[in-house]
Amino acid sequence: MKLLLVEDEPKLSEYLRKGLGEEGFVVDAALNGVDGLHMASVNDYDLIILDGNLPGIDGLAVLAALRQGQQTRQTPVLMLTARVQVEDRVRGLQGGADDYVLKPFAFSELVARIHVLLRRAQGSRAGGGEA
């Protein structure tokens, strides 16, 4: 499974790339929203992990652009963010995020949520989408 990680903190990005790689995922990474949007438009990803606080274009704007893109509108998006306000999470979910993980997070929970989203997406593509 191929993932796109859009995270502006280089140390966290590298930690996640390495850890998710050890879990069997192929992970491409972008350090800002512009690069993330470009990568998502030229590559096929099974899931996108998106930081909510990005320089320039913030995570919610990136999410909106992903949901408008022909290639990315159905790609599961997991928001990984320090935005702890309920209103921020609600806006993200209403904007098309499939799940949220708050920073700081447990790596094992992140991996479990990724697997759940990928299973759901595979079920939808196979015609067994949820009601």
* Element string (H = helix, E = strand): EHEHEHEHEH
Overall form: globular
The CA-CA distance between the termini, in Å, is: 25 Å
Record field, number of beta strands:
5
In terms of structural class, how would the helical and strand content be classed? Answer: alpha/beta
Percent helix, as a range, is: 40-55%
- Mind telling me the C-alpha Rg? 14 Å
Strand order of the largest sheet: 2-1-3-4-5
pLDDT < 50 runs, ≥5 residues: none
Structural overview:
With 131 residues, this protein is of the alpha/beta class. 47% of the residues lie in helices and 18% in strands. It contains 5 helices and 5 strands, in the order βαβαβαβαβα. The chain has a 5-stranded parallel beta sheet, sandwiched between helices. Helix 2 (33-42) runs parallel beside helix 3. The longest helix has 19 residues, at 107-125. The protein is globular and about 35 Å long. The two termini are 25 Å apart.
